[in-house]
Amino acid sequence: MSTSSLPAATEVPDGLEDVAEALTRELPRTRAWLEELVRIPSISSSPDHVEACRRSAERTAQLLTEAGLDEVRLLELSPAADGSVVHPYVTGSWLGAGPDAPTVLLYAHHDVQPVATAGNWTSEPFVPTERNGRLYGRGAADDKAGILAHVAALRAWQQARGGAPVNVKVIIEGEEEIGSPNLDHFLAAHADELRADVIVLTDLTNWQVGWPGLTYALRGMADVFVTVRTLAQPVHSGMWGGPVPDALTAMTRLLAGLHDDRGVVTVPGFADDVRPLSDDERDRLAALDLDESTLRADARVFDTVRLTGDPDRSLVERLWMQPTITPTGMDVPRVADASNTLLAEVRAKLSVRLAPGQDPDRALGALARHLESSAPFGAEVEVAIGENNAAWVTEPGGPAWDAAVAAMTAAYGRAPAAMGCGGSIPFVQPFSDAFGGAPCLLVGVEDPGSNAHGEDESLHLEDFAKACLTEAFLLAELAARAGELRTA
User: Fold this and answer.
1) Is 90 exceeded by the pLDDT of residue 162?
2) What is the pLDDT of residues 215-240, one digit of tens each?
3) Which pLDDT does position 1 carry in this prediction?
4) Confidence band (pLDDT; 50, 70, 90) for 82?
5) Which three-class secondary structure state does DSSP give residue 10?
6) How much is the pTM?
7) Is 111 annotated as catalytic?
8) Cβ-count burial of 31 within 10 angstroms (0-12 exposed, 13-18 middle, 19+ buried)?
9) What is the distance of C-alpha 308 from the center of its chain?
C-alpha cells in the first residue's frame, strides 16, 4: 500500500496493510455518509424533531447494513410513563469470528444537541461545510463521527477479509443528549442480546489534534430545576417596587450563593465524598501539563475573564475530577418582551456535574436542602431533581486498555494520553455492570477545538481518519488478546 494515502504519522501494524488500504480507499465515501447524517437535525430534546430523529435512526441502520452487519434493526420501547416519545436505538451484529473470539460491543449515538443561536454559526448548522481541514456542522463531531468510525472500520475488514477478527455487536443510541432517560428499560429488555467482553465507545475527546486520548474517568451529571416564587401574580414595578420583593432578584441572589468569589462551589456537604486523587493519578494528570493559555483558546474565554475554581488544584483536576453547579437556563421574559412588572415566579435549570466518588442522591440532596434553606427574602423555593447518573472511573490498564494503546499508537504515531472527561455518558456504567464489569474503552473522535454542544461544532478531518484506523487496528489487537480478555 502506498504510504502517501495514509494520514501523517500513521504506522500500519504488520499484517494489516490490506485492512488499512481498504479503509483509506473508502474515506471519501465515509465522509459523504457522515455529511448525510449531519444534514438530519436529530435533536432529541425537541418535540419538533421526532421525525428527524427517526430518519437519523433509519439512515444509521442502512449504514450499518452497508458495513456488513446482520439483523440490523430499530429497537423501540413503548412511550415513557409521562407520554413522551422514546427515540429509537439502532442495533446490529456480526458473529462470524466464532466462539473462541472475543465479542466487542461498539457504541455511539445519533441524536444531537440543539443549535443554540443559529445566527452565531459561521455556516448553517445542518449544512456540512469544510473550512481549514475541519468539517463544520451540528453532530459532525458529537457523535455522528463516532457512528462512521464504526462503519469505516467494519467495512474495511469486510472488504479486506470478509469480516472482522472479533465478534461484533453495535448499539447506536437516540437519547444520549437528553441523559439516556430510558436506558434502564432498554437494558432490561435487551441486555442479553448485547452482552460482550469489551465495550468500545467513540464519543470522547482526544487530548489535542494529533494526540489521541484514552479516557478512564467521566464526571456524572444531573439536571436540577429550581422555582422561586414571591407573589401571587406580577405587579407594577413602579407602584410596588421597594418593599415588595420580586422573584427574579430572589433567584439571582439564590444562584449567586452557590459559589464563592473564586467560583468554588460552597454548598455545605455537596462535595464531601469526592474521590481523592492518588499520587500516581496526580503524576499522570501533571504530565499532561495543560497551560492556561491553551485552555482559554480552546474554550474561547475572553482575555479579561478570570478562570474559576480552586487555584490550588490543577486545571485538568478542575475540569475532570471536581464537581460543578452551573445555571444553564432561566424562564424569564426576553428583554424585548419585558414589561415594567415585578416577576412573581422564575424557574431556572442547573447543570450539575458530579465528580468520581460522589453519590448522586446524597450530593443532590445536599444541594436541594441548601437551596430551600437559603431563600432570599423568605421566598418560596421549590427544587426538582431531574435525570442523573454517577461518575464513572476505571484503573488504566489490563488487556483491553493495552490493545487500545497499541491501536492508537499505530494510527496516530504516538501513545494516547490517559485522561478524564468533564462530560458524562450515562450508558457506560449500566452496561459495564450488566456484563459483569466488562472493560470499557472510551476513545475520541473530537478534539478540544470541536466545540461540541456549542456553535460552529466541527470535526478535524485528518484526526477523523486516524480515529477510523484506530478502530480497525483495535479489533485486531483485541483478537490477539482473546485469551487474556477471557481470564481478566
Assistant:
1) yes
2) 999 999 999 999 999 999 999 999 99
3) 46
4) low
5) coil
6) 0.88
7) yes
8) buried
9) 22
Task: Indicate if the pLDDT at residue 442 is higher than 70.
Answer: yes
Task: Quote the cell numbers at residue 451.
Answer: 466545540
- Dump strand ranges (E) for 167-284: 167-173, 198-205, 213-218, 220-229, 235-236
Q: Could you read off the pLDDT of 398-416 as tens digits, one per residue?
A: 999 999 999 999 999 999 9
SS3 content of the chain, % helix, strand, coil (to 5): 40, 25, 40
112 DSSP β-pair partners: 43
Annotated catalytic residue: which of 35, 111, 143, 447?
111
Cis peptide before 143 (omega within 30 of 0): yes
Going through 299-401 in order, the beta strands assigned E by DSSP cover 324-331, 341-342, 345-354, 380-389, 392-393
What's the chain's length in residues?
488
Does domain 3-218+392-487 fall into CATH 3.40.630.10?
yes
Integer Cα distance of 332 and 248 in angstroms: 8
- Looking at 176, 203, 246, 345, which residue is catalytic? 176
The answer to whether the CB of 175 falls within 8 A of the CB of 111 is yes
Question: Where are any strands of DSSP class E within 219-261?
Answer: 220-229, 235-236
Topology at the third CATH level for domain 220-274+323-389: Alpha-Beta Plaits (3.30.70)
Q: Which helix (H) or strand (E) holds 444?
A: strand 440-446
SS3 assignment, position 326 = strand
Q: How many CB atoms lie within 10 A of CB 103?
A: 21
pLDDT at 389 over 50: yes
pLDDT digits (tens, 9 = 90+) for 30-73: 999 999 999 999 999 999 999 999 999 999 999 999 999 998 99
Task: State the DSSP H helix or E strand holding residue 458, giving kind and residue range, or none if neither.
Answer: strand 458-460
Cβ–Cβ contacts within 10 Å for residue 94, how many?
A: 22
* C-alpha–C-alpha distance, residues 5 and 178, integer Å: 39
| Average pLDDT value for residue range 430-447 | 88
- Contact in structure between 183 and 427 (CB atoms under 8 Å): yes
The domain limits of the chain are: 3-218+392-487, 220-274+323-389
What ranges in 195-305 are assigned the alpha helix state H? 237-240, 247-256, 279-288, 292-299
